[in-house]
Write a structure and sequence with these properties.
With 637 residues, this protein is α+β, with helices and mostly antiparallel strands. Among the domains are: 177 residues, no CATH class; 150 residues, 2-Layer Sandwich (Alpha-Beta Plaits). It contains 17 helices and 22 strands. Strands 1, 2, 5, 6, 7, 8, 9, 10, 11 and 12 form a 10-stranded antiparallel sheet that branches. A hairpin with a 4-residue loop joins strand 9 and strand 10. Helix 10 packs parallel to helix 12. The chain is elongated.
């Protein structure tokens, strides 16, 4: 009797075997996907976190560098004032009581104040315009001492000369005295005329801080934040007392409005990032939050006098690092507020610039980048597993192994091996298996080609982005009003040509220029007309330079030209051209002795005695100052 096997039993057995194999492959593949994707996720997250913190550090380094310029300028200005005062004080200049009372009067409450015309504007006997001056001597202070009168008058003379050039960057420049007195160049506010008669300035925290008892080292001091009740402004002050033979003569100082400092130094973004400035001894200098009214009479805001918990907590973390110094930016983790503190030291005052950066911002960016890698890797491998599953459902042992090998090759990114059929594939089978194998080869080819196309597109987009960034950088180097290059471009170009000249690659000269009586022009004809003058002069400068030279707007009404490979003689020829060009513009100015707008300038050629570009700038600026001092409408070489 012949034994037969039921036909339906065989397919059931084969189906069970294939399902078992597929299940095992699926489980193993999923494990590999999870391990590789998790490693990629962690690697990407850590890399993104490091890059974000490095970017934060670079930002603070750059901000500290640029923002320190204001404080250095204050120190430089006050040094100049002290030198000028010493020259007059040590000279045989006499100030009699009549001359003193030409400046001052005593009000009905016993306070001595400078007359109003010195604030509103007065033409002196030598033809100079004096304005913006005010002075106050409390009613508890006698003014009979001749030396006291002399110091008051000499300081007023210097303020009238230097003050107009300085208040474009500072609220004012003023001089305090060991006596209860102060003299100010402060065009925005007649401070000395409105201060209350019994105001005890020497007892207030700011001016008292430089007295001998409070400041035995006699060093320059930056105050903390305080409220000026007379000007009704939040301010901070740079003060540098002047002593001669152990005698405290005067204390020249600069005031800075809190609003100006915040505009320059403080920013706040939607993601919670913000900056603040604090002294090393725990006094707040500037913060995005405005001080409250009940803090106005504190004098200087210490952490004990404010209610900003985040600042108090930040200082608690920063304080242990003070002994190590902040020559480099430090990143401090603030776990209680879930933020990073990037701390750098500003040159000049003993201040710390602190950028508060939420950890969540960095973590979110890192998570997004890592999640993208994870999802892409998972999606790619899942697609491959689905394809393998589909093929194996319709193949037996050998074709299954062949296609599994092909899938693994593609999983490794080895598309060429499959696309070029470098491995044995069942493409010759004359049925769906062969067609599927052929399509598998085509898929590998398509992925390879798509990858090549994607790389090409990425290269093209990268090139476009680089060009856009280049254009943006160029725009950031142009002055918005005149269209010529700005101070930032000048600093960069000067640094480059300075380095080239130091290496023996030729010489160069710079020409510092300033429009004469430009503030008077603005006051007479209006700022719109003044802007038009700036644009016309900038255009004239561009027309008269050589192709290899460049002209910049240095700031305000100041311009500067870099004459590449240009000696001082060549710079003088350029100066002659530009003086003629400005004269041809014939821009009317009634209060200019020439009847039209003129410029003054100073020329300085590169010399190896200069160790830094700033020294070259100062030399040219000194010549510009000499040109101004000796009559204007000239360029001094």
């Amino acid at each position: 009797m012949q034994t037969t096997v039921r036909a339906e039993a065989i397919p059931e057995y084969r189906q069970s075997l294939i399902t078992n194999i597929l299940l095992r492959i699926f489980i193993i593949s999923i494990g590999i996907v999870l391990i590789l994707s998790s490693r990629a996720y962690l690697t990407t997250f850590n890399r993104e976190t490091r890059e974000s913190l490095a970017q934060l550090e670079r930002f603070v380094v750059e901000r500290v560098r640029t923002d320190s310029e204001l404080f250095q300028l204050a120190s430089d200005n006050i040094d100049v004032f002290k030198q000028e005062f010493l020259k007059l004080h040590q000279a045989s200049i006499q100030v009699d009581e009549t001359e003193f009372w030409n400046y001052y009067f005593t009000d009905d409450k016993g306070a001595t104040r400078m007359k109003r015309e010195y604030f509103d504007g007065i033409i002196t006997e030598d033809g100079s315009l004096v304005y913006g001056l005010s002075s106050f001597i409390g009613n508890n202070q006698s003014v009979e001492n001749p030396d006291f009168q002399r110091r008051l008058v000499l300081a007023a003379r210097i303020l009238s000369k230097l003050g107009p050039a300085w208040v474009n960057r500072f609220a004012n420049v003023h001089v305090a005295y060991p006596e209860n007195a102060i003299t100010l160049f402060y065009p925005a506010e007649p401070w000395g005329l409105i201060a209350r008669a019994d105001l005890p300035m020497n007892e207030l925290g700011v001016i008292r801080a430089v007295n001998e008892q409070e400041n035995p080292e006699r060093k320059a001091i930056w105050s903390g934040l305080y409220f000026d009740e007379t000007a009704e402004e939040w301010m901070l002050t740079y003060m540098d007392p002047l002593y001669v033979d152990d005698r405290h003569l005067i204390t020249p100082a600069h005031d800075i409005y809190l609003s100006d400092l915040m505009e320059r130094l403080i920013e706040r973004s939607d993601d919670g990032t913000y900056n603040f400035i604090i002294r090393k001894d725990g006094y707040l200098v500037a913060h995005p939050s405005q001080p409250t009214d009940d803090q106005r009479w504190v004098g200087q805001l210490s952490l004990e006098d404010i209610d900003i918990p985040s600042v108090t907590e930040a200082y608690r973390l920063i304080a242990p690092e003070l002994d190590k110094g902040f020559d480099t930016v430090r990143i401090i983790e603030n776990e209680s507020n879930n933020t990073y503190l990037a701390v750098g030291q500003l040159d000049g005052p003993d201040w710390l610039f602190v950028r508060v950066f939420p950890m969540g911002t960095i973590q979110k960016a890192a998570h997004n980048a890592a999640r993208k890698v994870f999802l892409e890797a998972s999606l790619t491998l899942c697609i491959i597993l689905l394809i393998v599953y589909s093929v194996m459902k319709n193949q037996a042992q050998r074709p299954l192994r062949q296609l599994t090998q092909a899938a693994e090759a593609i999983g490794r990114g080895d598309f060429d091996t499959v696309a070029d059929q470098a491995m044995d594939l069942p493409v010759a089978i004359p049925n769906e298996i062969g067609m599927l194998s052929t399509r598998f080869v085509e898929m590998a080819t398509s992925i390879r080609d798509s990858q090549a196309t994607l790389e090409r597109i990425v290269e093209e987009r990268t090139a476009e982005l680089e060009k856009a960034n280049t254009d943006l950088r160029e725009m950031s180097l142009l002055d918005g009003l005149t269209g010529i290059h700005n101070r930032r471009a000048f600093d960069s170009d000067l640094e480059q040509v300075f380095a080239d000249a130091n290496q023996g690659l030729g010489t160069f000269s710079i020409v510092m220029m300033d429009i004469d009586f430009f503030k008077n022009y603005n006051d007479t004809y209006g700022h719109a007309a003044g802007d038009e003058v700036l644009k016309r002069i900038a255009h004239a400068l561009k027309e008269h330079i050589r192709q290899e030279d460049r002209v910049f707007r240095f700031g305000g009404e100041e311009f500067v030209a870099i004459l590449n490979h240009g000696t001082a003689a060549e710079a003088q020829r350029f100066a002659s051209r530009i003086m003629t060009g400005i004269e041809k513009l014939a821009i009317m100015q009634s209060d200019n002795p020439t009847g039209h707008v003129t410029i003054s300038g100073g020329i300085e050629e590169f010399n190896r005695r200069y160790s830094h570009p700033e020294e070259l700038i100062k030399a040219a600026d000194d010549k510009l100052y000499h040109a101004k001092k000796t009559g204007r409408n000239r360029i001094v070489s």
